[in-house]
Design goal:
Blueprint (H helix, E strand, L loop, with lengths): L2 H9 L1 H19 L34 H36 L4 H13 L4 H12 L3 H27 L3 H8 L4 H37 L11 H8 L8 H28 L5
């Protein structure tokens, strides 16, 4: 590993704070259910119970354990956010790469026209529109979010590809007869991966926030399946009686977004040679 990169990894406290926060979140989400957590769908007569040993975060209006719903909700929210961001990053980067490397082709103009048209809509409105077309459900929510973030990755990949293909080493490789496929595989793609990965991490936090918003509006994960958005939706009407029931999912979302933003920002510093 390059000495300057190793120095950044060791000295960059905010990166490790973000990683620690992400590890804690993932550990609770995916290992928590193995430590005696109650069934998040179990309805009991113990409604709106206060914090106790049996219910560390209390219960909701239906008597369901809030901690169990928060932990299982983290699974759904994180899985949907990461899967949708990864899918949109993969497809968007491919289209953006082709549109940037062949900017004068008809399909490139079509891709840019499609991207500009989709990005004319605010992302929450766009996500809601796509969700209404596909319907609710975990898989449909992943598709809806992937389509909503798809144009962002197209524009990013196209921009960095346009800049990379004008570099001197690309011109030199083309002058000695290197094929476009080999140029893309050995020179262009490796040099555009860094900004795409960094923004992919940052936009994953946006995808998780958007999933929570759609589920809150009834357009994402359908109740009674636990999701941070559905937990907010279920308990918002009781905010004056039990404000903590609304605060817990908000804290979880803020924790997730902060950890991903810290990791993404520090990765940008590490991967950008100008910041070393």
């Amino acid at each position: 590993m390059n000495r300057s990169v190793r120095k950044l990894l060791i000295s960059n406290l905010s990166l490790w704070v973000g990683v620690l926060m992400a590890v804690v979140l993932l550990g609770i989400a995916f290992l928590g259910p193995y430590f005696g957590i109650q069934d998040p769908l179990k309805v009991t007569s113990d409604r709106h119970a206060d914090i106790s040993k049996a219910h560390p975060l209390g219960t909701d209006f239906f008597g369901r354990d809030v901690l169990a719903r928060m932990i299982f909700g983290a699974r759904y929210s994180l899985t949907i956010g990461v899967a949708s961001s990864g899918l949109s990053m993969l497809l968007g980067s491919l289209f953006g790469l082709l549109a940037g490397y062949y900017p004068n082709r008809k399909f490139a103009r079509l891709i840019i026209w499609m991207t500009d048209t989709i990005m004319a809509f605010p992302i929450l409105i766009l996500g809601a529109m796509v969700a209404m077309v596909f319907g609710t459900g975990i898989f449909n929510t992943i598709i809806a979010l992937a389509i909503a973030f798809f144009p962002r990755f197209i524009r990013l990949a196209r921009g960095v590809t346009l800049a990379t293909k004008e570099e001197v080493y690309i011109t030199a490789a083309r002058s000695i007869g290197m094929s476009d496929w080999r140029l893309l595989r050995t020179h262009v793609v490796p040099n555009i991966l860094s900004p795409i990965i960094v923004m992919g991490v940052l936009w994953t936090s946006d995808a998780i926030s958007l999933e929570v918003s759609l589920s809150f509006l009834g357009l994402g994960v359908p109740p009674p399946t636990p999701s941070w958005g559905t937990i907010l939706q279920d308990n918002l009407k009781f905010i004056m009686l039990k404000p903590l029931l609304v605060i817990w999912p908000c804290v979880a979302v803020a924790w997730t977004v902060l950890s991903l933003n810290l990791i993404g920002d520090r990765f940008r510093d590490i991967l950008d040679p100008k910041m070393r």
